[in-house]
Amino acid sequence: MNYQNFLEAKIRIAPKTGFDIHPEDLHPILKPHQRDIVQWSIKGGTRAIFANFGLGKTIMQLETQRLIQSYKGGNTLFVCPLGVKQEFEKDRRKLGMPKLKYITHTDQLEEGHYFYITNYERIRKGDIDASLFNAVTFDEASCLRNLETDTTNAILDTFGNVPYRFVHTATPSPNRYLELINYAEYLGIMDRGQALTRFFQRDSTTAGNLTLHKNREKEFWFWMSSWAVFITKPSDLGYDDTGYELPPLVIHRHMVTFEREVKVDKKTKQASFIPDSSKSLPDAAKEKKLSIPARVAMMKVLIDKDPDSHYILWHHREEEREAIQKTLGSHCKSVYGSQNIDLKEEYLTGFSEGDYKYLSTKPEIAGSGCNFQYHCHKAIFVGIDYRFNDFIQAVHRILRFMQEHQVELHLIFTDAELEILNTLEEKWHDHLHLQSEMTAVIQQYGLNSDLYQYQLKREMFTGRKEMRGENWIQVNNDSVDEYASKADCSIGLIVTSIPFGNHYEYSENYNCFGHNETNEQFFKQMDFLVPHLYRTLKPGRIAAIHVKDRIRYSYMNGTGFTSIDPFSDDTTQCFRKHGFHLLSRITIDTDVVQENNSTYRLSWSEACKDMTKMGAGLPEYVLIFRKPPTGSENAYADEPVQHSKEQYTLARWQLDAHAHWKTSGERLIDAEYLKKLDLSDVLKAWRAIDTTERYDYHKHIEICEKLDQVKMLPRTFMAVPPQALSTEIWDDISRVNTLNSTQARRNLVKHICPLQLDIIERCIERYSNPGDVVADPFNGIGSTVYQAVKMGRYGDGCELKTEYWQDSIKHVRSADLKQAALTLF
């Protein structure tokens, strides 16, 4: 595999494991959009269809399974929620398919019969042997939204090996993308851990709170569209929408109140007449129970005002069902969990056909798959909660295509549940955004993943740029391509901080070394670079590589506790594989308290509970690799690095020869990072400088000018005022410790700090001669080149990210002009 092939392999488009069918084999009853989706699904082999309510998911599932059985043989299985079996039976007759045999156990399979249907309950109990089926489709697979349920575990364990498997649902939840990733895991598209690492930023404060990486959004939606089709109406695929217009929707909100005892907070002693039920689960449960009479009374008022209409009454608690049934009597049929399955089916079918006027049930029982739009267009939610998916599924039992009337929803809630209502409506907004993102891809490119791949190939880096000075060159390019063109044995020293595997993505290009799914993939890309580092380095000379071991959080390693990935060992193995020899491992201290504040893995409280789960802080390392000299008689480099004892003293040798190097921590700071600091950080740093060092007026001006360059120099007060050494002068009044600056800090994203300047200085002094070329293949904002120029060497830097490259030019020019570097003072 050449390097270009390797980069293109990073473009993750779902594989096609199915087969092509002859279009004439499709049943003529299918609508055009249904024909396209069925063919696309079968060719993909494992696919998700997120089609809006009323677009024909049932008939598409039936036709997909019919054709797979016709072409490949074997048994096929339909898995659906309770109350949906009759919908499959109606559409089966339209297709002229053999009868779907309902089974509760695979012992009931019959020789010569190939089409079977069951419920999720039977999957959970382990009554269905997946190995007996060649194709399976999950209808409204809500159980896959959570990878911690028994049903989900059973599906992943047993159905993951079925050759042809499909998921059909109308409402993938907008709840932090986890559901979409779980579908990808089940369908064999991508491992859940890989998807989390590849596309999402982790929120260490809230488990499961996922935010898409900004520079990965486009790739994520293209990747999703390669295995999941989102369609809200036929025109998304270029067809006529006649007959597929949703009816108008009107939402009525009814807030009820009732007598409560005065609640006194135990800590604050403050009394509250209106509790907030969103504060805790016990509060919410108590509010639900106490408010049942008031909410059911409001339901009765609404029904009495409109006695001729049919209503579906959604509730969440058994006590609510009992109160509803008592209020409405025999006019209302209830469907509930412990009820006989046949009776449930009878009531659900009867209500859908207009035999009963009122139906009382829970969204998790009848909210999926049932079609009630032909005789009902009004629903009352006798209570609300945070579960958006259950809510939206329930809404769309009547808000569907072919609904002839305006749909009316009545939401009943208490004065303590306003936050729940707001959250529910926010999730509805997020759901519509998710649909719009996916349908935009479908509308533009159709069901053609080859076009997605072509579009993503445009994310490869092109357009090499360079800038030169008398003693330096800075190149904006992929380091593999750049070093492939360098002359043999032309570099005197390599000093670099390599990307830490797939820990960060530094650039939006696929060329980025951080854009790899695993450490293994990262080092495969390093395998293209390291031989060039070896070839271009002079014989006997040094490559000093800055690394740090990586934290593996419990969600990454699946163990329930945090462990360490020995990234420095993997780096050593990689360089040794390509001819380098390890001379030493220099250790650089880090601040363990600061590390714990950002990782939460070394908590004192948790350590006291069980020390066995605790490790220690992670130092940084500089790995010293040597390319062997041409001759071995004295082990000297072909061009030795020589120092006079007067210039390189015994004292200095003792410190450098030690494997433990301390650092001042001084680094170059790019403008992008400076913008993310709030002024309180700037003030603290300035105080430390101005009260401990001799005052430097010109340095003071330079700091203020740098702040002004990035638009951080206030016009209304001094950000870095002179600090007083006398107690008679008060200088500790902070004008930047404000609410908005605190909020800005909360939104800081991780920044990749450049390598410390004094570490680079020691490496250059120890391992290079004046005039040598000192190179950095991951140059970032130019720390190595900056320091090399200051020390009389020729700096050679290569950086992929254009913004960093531009910063590096500014820094090295300041070294050229012998001006102070832009550091954090």
From TrEMBL:
Domain of life of the native organism: Bacteria
One protein family per Pfam: N6_N4_Mtase
UniProt keyword annotation of Methyltransferase present: yes
GO BP terms in the entry: methylation
UniProt entry tagged with the keyword Oxidoreductase: no
A molecular function (GO) term: DNA binding
Keyword annotations from UniProtKB, A to Z: Methyltransferase, Transferase
Gene3D superfamilies, sorted: P-loop containing nucleotide triphosphate hydrolases, Vaccinia Virus protein VP39
Annotated Helicase ATP-binding domain residues: 26-202
Protein name per Swiss-Prot or TrEMBL: Helicase ATP-binding domain-containing protein
Source organism: Dyadobacter chenhuakuii
Phylogenetic placement of the source organism: Bacteria, Pseudomonadati, Bacteroidota, Cytophagia, Cytophagales
